[in-house]
Automatic annotation (TrEMBL):
<feature type="domain" description="EfeO-type cupredoxin-like">
    <location>
        <begin position="80"/>
        <end position="167"/>
    </location>
</feature>
<dbReference type="InterPro" id="IPR008972">
    <property type="entry name" value="Cupredoxin"/>
</dbReference>
<feature type="signal peptide">
    <location>
        <begin position="1"/>
        <end position="21"/>
    </location>
</feature>
<feature type="compositionally biased region" description="Basic and acidic residues">
    <location>
        <begin position="27"/>
        <end position="65"/>
    </location>
</feature>
<dbReference type="Pfam" id="PF13473">
    <property type="entry name" value="Cupredoxin_1"/>
</dbReference>
<protein>
    <recommendedName>
        <fullName>EfeO-type cupredoxin-like domain-containing protein</fullName>
    </recommendedName>
</protein>
<feature type="compositionally biased region" description="Low complexity">
    <location>
        <begin position="66"/>
        <end position="78"/>
    </location>
</feature>
<dbReference type="InterPro" id="IPR028096">
    <property type="entry name" value="EfeO_Cupredoxin"/>
</dbReference>
<feature type="region of interest" description="Disordered">
    <location>
        <begin position="27"/>
        <end position="78"/>
    </location>
</feature>
<keyword id="KW-0732">Signal</keyword>
């Protein structure tokens, strides 16, 4: 009986996922149902998965790409002068820009404005400064920071999924 319920749930979920939920921009092969009622990847997808496992360190798309993750291809960068202000938009894609460059040991103001309820940008954390701030929707929250002489000053959302940094200009 439990197996039947599980199969009915799986089939219902598969129909929902294929019919009602919009597809991502990813071009993945469809999942095929087998005679046992289990979903299995198509032959092409299974082969691609095996190739990915063989590659070992092959990069898989990050669900939070654009959120300041390491290895990000197109990180948004802003340059600010000493005493300047960096306007940072917080949306469902993370921080924009995600990297602020300024002269070493200078003071700059980070001005965060959250523009959507989507995502996890409701809270800002700067762990090295013991800062935790709520980011109200469509309100700018300003924080003055000192640019490190070397390395970076990181900031993140409360869940540590969206990430950004302040780095010294070279």
């Amino acid at each position: 009986m439990t197996r039947l319920r599980s199969s009915v749930f799986t089939a219902s979920f598969a129909i929902f996922a294929l019919v009602l939920a919009p597809a991502c921009d990813k071009k993945e092969e469809p999942v095929e149902a087998t005679a046992e009622g289990k979903d299995e990847p198509s032959d092409k997808q299974a082969e691609a998965d095996r190739e990915g496992e063989k590659a070992g360190e092959a990069e898989k798309p990050d669900a939070h790409a654009g959120h300041g993750a390491a290895g990000e291809a197109k990180a948004e960068v802003a340059s600010v002068e000493a005493g300047g202000k960096a306007e940072i938009k917080v949306d469902a894609g993370g921080y924009h820009p995600a990297e602020i460059q300024a002269p070493p040991k200078s003071k700059v103001t980070l001005a965060f404005t959250r523009t959507t309820e989507a995502g996890c940008g409701q809270e800002l954390v700067i762990a090295s400064m013991d800062v935790k701030k709520d980011l109200p929707l469509n309100e700018t929250v300003e924080i003055e920071v000192e640019v490190p002489e070397s390395g970076e000053l990181g900031f993140a959302c409360g869940m540590n999924m969206y990430k950004g940094k302040v780095v010294p200009k070279a």
